[in-house]
Amino acid sequence: MTKGPGAPAAARPGRPGAAVPPEPGLWNIANLLTMLRLLLVPVFVLLLFAAGGHDPKWRSVAWAAFAVAMITDLFDGELARRMGLVTDFGKIADPIADKAIMGAALIGLSVLGDLPWWVTVVILARELGITLLRFWVIRFGVIPASRGGKLKTLTQGIAVGMYVLALTGWLATGRAVLMGLAVLLTVGTGLDYVGQALRLRREGLAKAREGR
Question: pTM value?
Fold first, then answer.
């Protein structure tokens, strides 16, 4: 309902009686980018396996779909925070979309024989494990994304994208080296998150005992 001329102005957040801003609508730019990324997952898989999965032209088109998904991943969360568009849907769908496109690429490449299965298992096990770990300690606090974690995500995205392309020669060697670095960052940041989770839980339990 529209306020009348004499209606009081909304109180500022943080002050007594401050009005709680309504949650943004579902159909905002950040959520639309997340939805696009989710829709790109099956499209990417179809393109990756088109013509037997080893046609350079189809692999290039699959790479384009993967690249678009990765670019939307860079922008949707940032837009949501900067423009005040954070929603419950976005909190749930954004990480699902991230893991879906990366998981589809890793599993697809391993099925095609282009990427060793142990690489796929290590990366996906780490992602699933850290997600479960976050839920395990969520009542004590949130484990923030670290710089190492962000570097890991970037390195993974570039490396997997290079594997999607039909590369040969020194480019094929370069992507193998980059994937090796991605695996090291995956394991290293995973261990760091485990340490943070244990510390967060220990501190939370100590505060709970002190408050008794």
Answer: 0.80
